[in-house]
Every structure is written in C-alpha cells, then in structure tokens.
Amino acid sequence: MSEASNTGAAPYDEMHTADGSVRPHYTSYAEWLDDVPRALIDRKRSEADIAFHRVGITFNVYGAEGGKERLIPFDLLPRIIPGREWRELERGLAQRVRALNAFLADIYHGQEILRAGRIPADQIINNAQFRPEMKGVDVPGGLYSMISGIDLVRAAGADGRGEFFVLEDNLRVPSGVSYLLENRKMMMRLFPDLFSRYHVQPVDHYPDLLLETLRAVAPAGVIDPTVVVLTPGAYNSAYFEHSFLAQQMGVELVEGQDMFVQDDVLYMRTTQGPRRVDVIYRRIDDDFLDPLAFRPDSMLGVPGLMRAYRAGHVTLANAVGTGVADDKSIYPYVPEMVRFYLGEEPVLNNVPTWMLREKDDLAYVLDHLPELVVKEVHGAGGYGMLVGPASTRAEIEDFRRRILLAPEKYIAQPTLSLSTCPTFVEAGIAPRHIDLRPFVLSGGKEIRMVPGGLTRVALKEGSLVVNSSQGGGTKDTWVVD
C-alpha cells in the first residue's frame, strides 16, 4: 500500500527543479515531448488501451461496480531515474532483503534477536503471520523470501533534494512485475525513437532471472528441478500475471487440483503420467496451501503439501511464514535487523512510525489524527487506513473509536509530501504522486534485480492512493546512464 499527501511543503518533482528547469536526466525526453503533437499522444494512448485489452492485462478494482475487472491505466510519460541513484537504491535494497531473510531464519530457529531483546518476543510469537509449523524447518540456502517487492517513496528533504524511504516490505506473494514488463514492451512499441535518445537499462530479462532464482533454491541433490507456478485460478485478480510469468519462464501453470502428494513427495498430473515437482512459485496465501495443515475448507491447495515441504522434498517460493516479516507491526524494527544481523547501518531509511501498542505513541497519535496516516498492521491494498489530511471530521472520529478498541492493531506515520511525476491526464500534463516497487530476487548467494521497478501513480487530482486495486495507474520506469 502507498499513499501520498500534501503537508504544505512542495513535493519533490521528479522532472523539474524548484525553479522550473528540467533535471538533466529528463532533458532529452523534455525536448522530445515539446515536439510531439497532442493528437499523436492521444492516438498512442488509444493504441495502448487496445493492445492491453487484447492481452488481458486487468486488475480487480474492489468496491467498484461490484468488483468488476478493468484495465490498469497506463501512463505514457515515463518515470526516469539516473543510474547513480539506482545503484545506491540497489545497494540499500539488497542490504534490506538480506537482513529480512536473516530475521526469518532466526525466528524460526534460534530466535537470537528475541533473546537479545532487540524486538519484543510477543510481537513475533503472538503475530497472526508467525507460523509455528515452520519452527526448525530448514529451507534451501536459508532463504525465505526469494521474490521480494519493496515499496519506496521519495519525499522532499529540507534542502529540496529528494530522499527515498522504504514504505513497505512485501515478502509473501508480491505482485506487479508483469505490468513492469508489459509497460516497457508497450513503450518500445509505441515510441521506438525515444529509446534511440537514451541508454535505458533493459528489464526484459526478468523472467530468466526469476527462473534462475527458483532453480537455485531447489531441494538438495536435485540437478534439473521441475519448477511450476501455483495459481488460485482464473478468477483471481492477478491471474494474468500468474499465466504471464509461467509462459515467460517456460514452466507449467498449475492449480492445487493438478497436484498430489505421495510418500511425502509432490507430483503433478500430466498426460505422460505423474511428474515430480521440485519448486513451487506459489501465488496463494499460506492459509490456502494445504487443507491438512491450515484451513481445512481450502480448495486451492494440495493435501499433504506441508509434509512434503517439511521433509525437504519441495521448495516453496516464497516460504511459508514470511508474512511475519512484512507485517506492519514488524516494519519499524527492520533497521534494527540490519544492525543486528549484518553489523551495518541501513542504507535506506524507514518512514518514521508510531506503534499504537505503545502508550506514549498512542497518546500522540490520538492528539494528531488529522495530520497523520494510520494503517492496520494487517491491512493491504490501501484498505483499513486513515489519511488524516484527506478525511472529514466524522471519518476521523470514527477511526478514533476503532483505534481505541484495539490500538495494537494500528501504526501511524506522518503524511509525507511524496514526489510527483508529470502525467498525461484529460486536461493535459499535470503532476501526480508516485511510488516505486522494485523486485528483488534472492537465490543462492546472489541478490539480483532488474533496473527500476513498477512505478504506480495516483491518476486523479488530489488522489492519495496509488494502488491498482483502488484505481491507480502505472508508468514505465527508466534507469538511464
């Protein structure tokens, strides 16, 4: 989830400096944009819509028209990041994901960070996302989150320079990379001349990196692993991505009913008979993976899958129980994880956060609700949150009552003045708030990522939420040298 808000300070503009001049990495694009007729842009937008419809790139916008699926709006004006900025982000992202994986390995084994008192034990043991079933289970390479989506936002600093903050860690089933890839493909198709002006770093090798990552975490002794993508089915809002990634990697897309467990080994049914499965890239939440271990009413998983998993005969990416590390109540402790496990200072900072389970934090937040963003610790997709500056007095008072009933379920953060990027809207070009979700792949000893990530944009004027599930759009993200 990402939100934007104005706090009085001018947000950092990705394309223009405070005096209105164009930043150096946007210069060539600005010159091109000045020469392009508006009619051509309108025609290209229509071509993009038709092409996206043809391939079925949709997302479910919950609460709108009964949850009707629609196209994710795609903006033709790219977000451009200089290579030197990206390299620093890349360093910080790799550091953060290493620490998160070390934390997950620790809490399911020795729990040294809890013994040291660096994180309150009850925050972990009583967390709904902590899976006791994983205690003592060794996973290949000690890696729990092989595919991580780290949400970044940029806010204007006191000196006018933009500083990136980590807003959220997504370690369970992070989505959106298919839109990153399709956005780039669409931009290259619509504006091939633009790519002759820039040395835009490529992203189309992501499926190859993903497959290499998944093969690298196969069970010990497996030389040529069989990898599959496990989907809840065609009615899932992200089904396009599931099928897209399976096709791009050249692996089978399966549902739970396509597989079975025998003698603690997982097999999929094929026309040539049963075939052993070694690695599952799963796009199903923990609760639905195995009706014998979790929810008995689940029709999406495979009975006995956890037995095969605990026996070390199949790898799940991401591992069961990763959710405890991306829970919003744990987020404030990630910088401490970096220090504890890596002995380093964090490269990327968190957004300052109040934990409402703490008495002093609760008192402060209740006194400043109109100024803050308050989130449910288990919330996602922009739901279960209060954006104080954008809320009515009645909405604030209603949320106050909800907080008082269970303060431990909430955190609060300042309403950052998030960066904006020029965006094509009906009235022309206007600034809109954006975030960035890079996808970090951890396999073996390497951490890799494609340059940039998925830029999400709040398309409506005054909109504070960029999530696709609530009507936000996306942009192509260019890393340029």
TrEMBL record:
Segments forming domain Circularly permuted ATP-grasp type: 78-458
Coiled coil: none
Record InterPro entries: ATP-dep_Glu-Cys_Ligase-2, CP_ATPgrasp_2, UCP005522
Highest taxon of the lineage: Bacteria
Pfam family, one: CP_ATPgrasp_2
Protein name stated in the entry: Circularly permuted type 2 ATP-grasp protein
The species this protein was found in: Thauera sinica
Organism phylogeny: Bacteria, Pseudomonadati, Pseudomonadota, Betaproteobacteria, Rhodocyclales
